[in-house]
Specification:
495 residues; mainly alpha; 26 helices
């Protein structure tokens, strides 16, 4: 019943909210790129290969069908958490309710973000594990495959497999541990053949361990009051039930609940501690906190000593304080909560429509590129990728076997509706427009002097400036090479 209620809420959100999150669209890009360059995408860990395979069929139908399917999968996760806790002897209805009432979980579900898929994967593995017998063995196989959904979920998945191995008996435990390695070994061997490299999983990892210079994360990785505030608010909005863990007692939990609790404690290190020392970078936004949601919900629901009334009042107060604090947050946090499409974004599109543009609209704003691609197809939008995107693909893909070239060619048509690499800037027409968002990364590749030399300001709309080519400009040259940024990733797409 809770899963059904969540599905209804997701349907309402899909209709009323824009669903324009650039990170959510990345899941869709992986699924679309798999159709264009299957092998290159399948062995490109940045795109979460398992999710690309799962969503590839529905992605062929378009962005909105993909969002519907993604929200439906999230609703299944609500059911699996409750069913797993119920099988473990806890209050399944409570676990489902705690997951379903997470604002970030709902928003991420209807915007396509892969973090909810990680929650669903963990919930499915926990559900199979709780059923015992052959289902527990199947849980080990599924856990091994789900490592390629969201990589931070590998820690709780590993603890569930460990729990099954320890308490399954000597030979059953060994078998379950071996089953967990089936998919990683097969995938690793297939990738070794493709990459011609046995160590390819380490050579071409899913993420950079350090953020790119002058990226949004680069400026955010510092210990100050704003970082602490955003962490706290992110945790509260993603896991509003977190104050309830203060009422949980380790000794009252069943063995599986204890293992989940230990995994949550371990997760604090890579998600909270190490980023402060710039040793590991995974992410600091609210959506990254979703990995704690099914764990906290399960632990609270598995402890028979937790009083619902008292815990519920604490959760309500904490959530209310977080929502009151919300307006003071940076736009990137508020965007995840349904404000992704700022008024200035729609005002910019209205201006382009009123001017009856039949040219190309080049933009560095990924949300605008998505909006034009799927809601205003009469206006051709082309993304101007930032330097951090170029560097990430360059460093995470294999150049020697042609993977990088295949991905660049495919991303030219799938990256937020289509991309224009900086080295490929060329002919422009009088009807073309450049719609530029205020982003610190923009001027790394395209300094203000570049735009002033070849374009002139037509209109400012909120955070956007709309520029048109100057009267004597028929061709935009590649921007000047920036200082402090490696040149190879910027020119490689044109080689």
């Amino acid at each position: 019943m809770t899963a059904l209620a969540f599905a209804v809420a997701a349907a309402v959100a899909l209709v009323s909210l824009p669903g324009l999150d650039d990170e959510g669209y990345l899941t869709f890009i992986g699924a679309k790129t798999l159709d264009v360059a299957p092998l290159a995408t399948l062995f490109f860990q940045k795109f979460h290969p398992l999710l690309s395979v799962v969503y590839a069929p529905v992605a062929l139908l378009g962005w909105w069908p993909f969002l519907v399917a993604h929200a439906a999968v999230a609703a299944c996760g609500v059911y699996f958490v409750g069913a797993a806790v119920q099988n473990l002897g806890g209050r399944g209805w409570l676990a489902s309710a705690l997951v379903a009432t997470s604002p970030i979980f709902l928003m991420a579900a209807v915007s396509g973000q892969s973090d909810t898929d990680g929650v669903v994967a963990l919930a499915l593995v926990l559900y199979l594990h709780a059923r015992g017998g052959r289902a527990a063995s199947a849980a080990a196989v599924v856990a091994g495959a789900c490592l390629w959904t969201r990589y931070e979920f590998s820690i709780p998945l590993a603890f569930i497999v460990l729990d099954g191995a320890i308490h399954g008996g000597r030979w059953v435990g060994v078998r379950r541990a071996a089953l967990a390695l089936v998919f990683p070994v097969l995938y690793g061997l297939a990738g070794a053949v493709y990459h011609h490299d046995v160590w390819w999983l380490l050579q071409y990892p899913p993420n950079l361990t350090r953020p790119v210079v002058e990226s949004a994360a680069y400026h955010f990785l510092s210990f100050n009051w704003r970082t602490v505030a955003e962490w706290w608010l992110g945790l509260t909005l993603a896991v509003p039930c977190w104050p309830g863990v203060m009422a949980v007692r380790y000794r009252r939990l069943p063995q599986t609940g204890r293992m989940l609790g230990i995994s949550a404690a371990v997760l604090v290190v890579p998600l909270v501690v190490l980023p402060l020392f710039h040793m590991v970078f995974e992410g600091l936004g609210p959506r990254y906190m979703l990995v704690f949601l099914p764990i906290v919900a399960a632990c609270i629901s598995l402890d028979p000593g937790v009083r619902i009334r008292r815990t519920g009042s604490v959760v309500a107060v904490t959530g209310a304080v977080a929502w009151i604090t919300l307006p003071a947050l940076p736009r990137r946090v508020r965007a995840l909560l349904g404000a992704a499409a700022a008024p200035s974004l729609y005002a910019t599109v209205d201006h382009l429509e009123r001017e009856s543009h039949h040219g190309v609209v080049y933009t560095n704003d990924r949300q605008l590129a998505v909006l034009l691609r799927w809601s205003h197809p009469e206006i051709r939008g082309v993304l101007l990728p930032q330097h951090d995107v170029l560097i990430e693909v360059y460093l995470l893909a294999n150049h020697s076997n042609g993977q990088y070239s295949s991905l660049i060619k495919a991303l030219g048509s799938t990256l937020y509706g289509g991309a224009m690499w900086p080295c490929a800037m060329g002919v422009v027409g009088d009807n073309d427009r450049f719609v530029l968002d205020r982003d610190v990364r923009l001027h790394v590749l395209y300094p203000e002097t570049y735009w002033d030399a070849y374009t002139q300001l037509e209109l400012r709309v909120g955070d956007f400036s709309i520029r048109r080519p100057r009267a004597n400009v028929t061709r935009m040259p590649p921007p000047p090479r920036p200082s402090g940024v490696p040149v190879a990733p910027l020119v490689a797409p044109c080689r």
